[in-house]
Design a protein that fits this description.
By secondary structure, the chain is an alpha+beta fold. It is built from nine helices and five strands.
């Protein structure tokens, strides 16, 4: 009888390390499953949700696997719906040309603005005498009406707006503007900022500098140089395919 009790006690003591190892292994399995869950949930999508389901099936029910690529309705509903960044249908550019031309008619009549209809949009040409003092990139006081009218005409439309600064060929060399490149760039950015403060969406605008490289007439006379000193606002339809491609590249980065 005594020997039987001793054998039973010895057997229980011998099995204790085994029970500890089983508990430890089960704990490690749970931790592994938890970290798999954290990893997949960090950026949920269809592929990772399938990976999650397979991991849990392998850990907790190795004999049952997900069939094919089919996910349950609850998993499919967890996918983030695609974000629509661009309109499915481009704007009617002829209608846009008509609307903007009508809103800017008063500026055209007062010769503060030259408006040209181009193939895919409009070109607004503003002489510098209505915008900037000589050799400066700070808007003059009488430019507010021009900026307000232009912003009101284009601010609600999802269009590509390129603001181009141009100068004549007279060299300039000051602390602020070492050359006509800096001057034309500063003037384009000034117009850009003026439109932004008046509600034009920032993702639609680009500022560009051309210095004296794209004159519309010769620079031999003061009249010609005055025409070449200008800011042009080119309004065109957006290239939706290029914009979508850029968006995909940004997401991949």
């Amino acid at each position: 009888m005594i020997n039987s009790k001793r054998n039973s006690t010895h057997s229980n003591r011998a099995s204790s390390p085994e029970r500890y190892l089983i508990t430890y292994a089960y704990l490690l399995t749970l931790l592994f499953a938890l970290f798999v869950l954290f990893y997949v949930m960090s950026k949920p999508d269809g592929a990772k949700m399938k990976e999650l389901m397979e991991a849990f099936n392998n850990v907790f029910n190795p004999n049952q696997m997900i069939e094919g690529n089919q996910l349950s309705p609850s998993v499919e509903s967890a996918e983030t719906p695609p974000l629509v960044l661009f309109p499915a249908k481009p704007l009617d550019i002829e209608q846009v040309q008509q609307e903007i031309s009508t809103k800017l008619a008063q500026l055209v009549e007062s010769k503060q603005l030259n408006l040209e209809i181009i193939e895919d949009g409009l070109k607004l040409q503003i002489p510098n005498q209505f915008l900037f003092p000589p050799a400066k990139a700070t808007l003059s006081n009488n430019s507010d009406d021009i900026m307000n009218t232009i912003a009101g005409a284009i601010g609600d439309l999802d269009l590509q707006i390129n603001i181009d600064g141009h100068t004549d060929n007279v060299p300039i060399k000051t602390i602020s503007y070492p050359s006509n490149w800096e001057l034309s760039a500063a003037r384009a950015v000034t117009i850009l900022q003026a439109l932004l403060t008046r509600g034009v969406p920032p993702h639609n605008i680009v500022a560009r500098a051309f210095a004296d490289q794209r004159p519309i007439t010769d620079n031999l006379t003061e009249e010609g140089r005055e025409k070449n000193r200008r800011v042009e606002i080119i309004i065109t339809q957006k290239d939706l395919s290029a914009a979508a491609s850029n968006s995909e590249e940004n997401e991949n980065e």
